[in-house]
Amino acid sequence: MVGLVGPGPDTTATTTATTTEDPGDGRDARQPRGSRYVASHVTKAFNGAEVLHDVSIVLEPGSVHSLLGENGAGKSTLFKIMSGLYEPDAGELVLGDERLHGLTPRSALQQGIYLVPQEPTLMAHLSAAENLYVGALPRHGRTRLVDWKRIGRESVSYFTRVGLDIDIETPARNLSIAQQQLLECARALVHNCQVILFDEPTSPLTPHEVDVLFELVDGLRSDGLALGFISHRLDEVISISDQVTVLRDGRFVMNAPRGGYTRDELVTAMIGRPIGVRTRVRRSSDVTDRREILRVEDLAAPPTFTDISFTLRKHEVTGLAGLVGSGRTEIAEAIFGLRKADRGKVVLDGVPLTHRTPRECIDAGLIYLPEDRARNGIFGEVDIGRNVTAGIIPHLPRRWHLIRTDRETLLAAGATARTAVHMQALGSSINTLSGGNQQRAMISRWLLAEPKVAIFDEPTRGVDVGAKDDIYDIVADLATSGLACLVISSDLEELTLICDRVLVIYEGRIVGEVEGDDVTTARLGQLVVEGAM
Ligand SMILES: Nc1ncnc2c1ncn2[C@@H]1O[C@H](COP(=O)(O)OP(=O)(O)O)[C@@H](O)[C@H]1O
Ligand SMILES: [Mg+2]
């Protein structure tokens, strides 16, 4: 049973399933293991922007509950609230029978709640054993001196328990990320925690390290702990979770127990669109000149993206699909000279563009329409005409250094006609235009540079539905006129409608290329979310 966009899981009951019996293996049993931990109707805003809205989650003892969602969905924020790092604006946290008010990281730890953060936060210069006991150094009863003997003895057993095979004197800075994470888990055990929250623990790990971690998580589950787990890797989530909750844009979308969902349902819940509904609209393509015009070779800026190689051809629309945060925008920015790549090559029609400035890229025939037009591209207070010619100001016809405004107006009029900007007059402020028409105006700006390649980053985001089709037409027209277009979009359906070919980016790598009739939302959805089929 899958509850799609419902009121959320039932969080009203406050029954506890505490196991009070001794674990029986000599472990310290100061606190009973395994209380139910509930975050209920949590809302949180940063600087007025709501990033969590009325989200609830129930962590049951002896069970792994995963949070799924695209980057920015609010997963980390929820776990940070549940571990006292952030204070919620509304909602409550209930551990067992107890309402936790004004939770801080310290009081969370006292309650037995531990967050294994996305980036381990060990003290680099302290030894593994010292890190294990930070904030909880065992002391001799009478003298209150630190009991180093006990630390030596017990840290070995904690490390063994989490599968960490290291010398306890090793400085934390010499540990691998995987080892640091296991050490964090061991810390949670030292504090006798009953709730452990893992924030994307597997992202930096090798497959073998993931296996080791999962074995540990399995063990903690058998011990009755309540475990929260964040990952955006579906396979991992499906294999480890007793329950899955999906967030999107800070909202609860779905919750289901193990076996109570299909892979497709998870994908749809994460990216928000039913997959495989519409079929692709073909662009007329009786063009024969499909000459390669842009070549990207081994472009890399780890850890953001790496091994990026592809070519763009004249008359073709190529899509770049991927989750938010997969590296698509960063790749485009690197191609356009807005961001430095560590290695790799970009060649435009035989001209090397590597390490060029955006200005030089434009002059060579490459244009880039950034995602956030309002911030990056549009001069809001300036009139439409000047907004359109802004990209070629150094090249505008001049007399005595002064721009010949009559010529400028002519150019702007020609360009806005080409993209059919609906406006009162070229002299009106660009702020008077609708989102779609602003987009058209921006495209006309770049057409004045007579580009060979156009990169569009989320061209229809924030554009009203009616204007979307217009933008699709513009892209198609540009391709028909001989440009190579690269379209970055999170809207898979959009990609299926306008692209001849789609490259899929997953965690900074190209993991698939889909062409022709294979360009379907179902196929793209799987690749985008899972990185492979
Ligand atoms: N401390 C903060 N200040 C301002 N905005 C934040 C802060 N932490 C997170 N955000 C914003 O909240 C949203 C959700 O972030 P996060 O919880 O980290 O998402 P996820 O872990 O699902 O990728 C993002 O838009 C992020 O930019
Ligand atoms: Mg996160």
Structure description:
With 533 residues, the protein is α/β, with parallel strands linked by helices. It folds into three domains: 3-18 and 31-122 and 175-271, Rossmann fold, CATH 3.40.50; 273-365 and 451-533, P-loop containing nucleotide triphosphate hydrolases (Rossmann fold, 3-Layer(aba) Sandwich), CATH 3.40.50.300; 384-450, no CATH class. It is 31% helix and 24% strand. It is built from 17 helices and 23 strands. The protein has helices spanning 75-82, 105-111, 128-132, 148-162, 177-190, 207-222, 234-240, 263-271, 328-335, 358-364, 373-376, 384-389, 405-418, 435-447, 465-480, 492-498, 521-530; strands at residues 3-4, 37-46, 49-59, 63-68, 90-95, 98-100, 113-116, 195-199, 226-230, 243-248, 251-257, 292-301, 305-313, 317-321, 343-348, 351-352, 366-369, 398-399, 402-403, 453-457, 484-488, 501-506, 509-515. The chain has a seven-stranded mixed beta sheet, sandwiched between helices. The protein has a six-stranded mixed beta sheet with strand order 17-20-21-14-22-23, sandwiched between helices. Helix 4 (148-162) crosses helix 5 (177-190), helix 8 packs across helix 17 (521-530) and helix 14 runs parallel beside helix 15 (465-480). The longest helix is centred in the middle third of the chain and has 16 residues, at 207-222. It is elongated. Residues 75-76, 118, 199-200 line the site of magnesium ion. The site of adenosine-5'-diphosphate has 10 residues, from helix 1.
